[in-house]
Amino acid sequence: MCENSWPQRSACPLSLLAFVFLFVGTRLTLTNPATPPETPFEEPFPWWILSLLFVCGVVVASVRGRWGARTSVPASSFTRALMVGGIVGAAACTGIALGRTVLAEEGRALFAMETRAVSQWELRITREASPTETGYWSAAEVRIEGSPVGRVWLSSGPRLQRGAQIRVVGRYEALGDDEWGVSSRMQGITGTVRVVKVLDEKPAGGLASCLDAARDALLARFEPGKGPGRALVAASALGSKEGVKQFSI
Fold first, then answer.
1. Is the pLDDT of residue 244 over 70?
2. What residues contact 146, with CB distance under 8 A and at least 6 apart?
3. At 174, is the secondary structure helix, strand, or coil?
4. Which of 9, 195, 197, 217 is the most exposed place for a label (fewest CB within 10 A)?
5. What percent of the chain shows pLDDT beyond 70?
6. Hey, what's the torsion of the CAs at 238, 239, 243, 249, to 10 degrees?
7. Is the distance from CB of 178 to CB of 218 less than 8 angstroms?
């Protein structure tokens, strides 16, 4: 190698290229607010079909390349381009299909939630409450007439135990198309409920309830609110965020 020449660099792996296009396709799709599909192409199924066609193209190009290697015929530039294009196209279409699937589910969830008052919902807390300046922040699964329809963020004054089943009076607000809304959609969450009043609360039962009770007992022994060191230990050992946020560690 000449002293003034650039060092050889490895080529970008196709798996990384596929991941980038998968991420971009999903991201661009989720930046749009959830609306009911108006045309068949807004449904995820056509995109899954396109992704399958691209995969078939990759298989054909791969078989052709292997056949050429066995017969000592080098693979043509067209064959290599077909393989790379097929992988990129399949990844992008898969990303769009995943995004459209999320938006379709969110659209159905929004329709079910907006046609019923929040007081008619059955909420099950699925995430440990995190303290805020005005109360607590958690997530809940929404059921209407016993059927799950979606998940929401829950803003409440009192601390709600994970696994508890509650009925509340509250105000529901759908997600926007900003960064936080897109991030929430990727977690399967469709909106935010600000709890005004808790009408009914049933504590969680079973093994999960026993484990949470044991964790709360240990957390009380750590006393994370008495100092940043205790808060850090509680966060590291038990995953508690209360002391961490209180002392801004």
1. no
2. 122
3. strand
4. 9
5. 69
6. 120
7. no
Residues 6+ positions from 149 with CB-CB distance below 8 Å: 108, 109, 112, 113, 142, 143
> What is d(CA 80, CA 89) in angstroms, rounded to the nearest whole number?
14
Tokens of 225: 């609110």
Q: Dihedral angle at the C-alpha atoms of 227, 231, 234, 237, nearest 10 degrees?
A: -120
Which pLDDT belongs to residue 149?
85
The pair of three-digit structure tokens given for residue 74, joined into one six-digit string: 């080098």
* CA 238 remoteness from chain centre: 24
201-232: buried (b, 16+ CB within 10 Å) or exposed (e) per residue? eeebeeeeeeebeebeeebeebebeeeeebbe
3-state DSSP assignment of residue 117: coil
pLDDT in tens, 158-188: 888 888 888 999 999 888 778 888 788 778 7
What would the mean pLDDT of 191-198 be, rounded to a whole number? 90
Percentage helix, strand, coil for the chain under 3-state DSSP, each rounded to 5: 55, 20, 25
Number of Cα atoms under 13 Å in the Cβ half of residue 49 = 6
pLDDT in tens, 116-132: 888 889 999 888 777 78
Which residue has tokens 């066995």? 70
How far apart are the C-alpha atoms of 25 and 184, rounded to whole Å?
A: 17
Query: Residue 8, CB half-sphere, CA atoms under 13 Å: how many?
Result: 4
Pull the structure tokens for residue 56.
């078939």
Q: Which SS3 state, helix, strand or coil, does residue 90 take? A: helix
pLDDT greater than 70 at residue 28: yes
Who contacts 218 (Cβ-Cβ below 8 Å, separation ≥6)? 237, 238
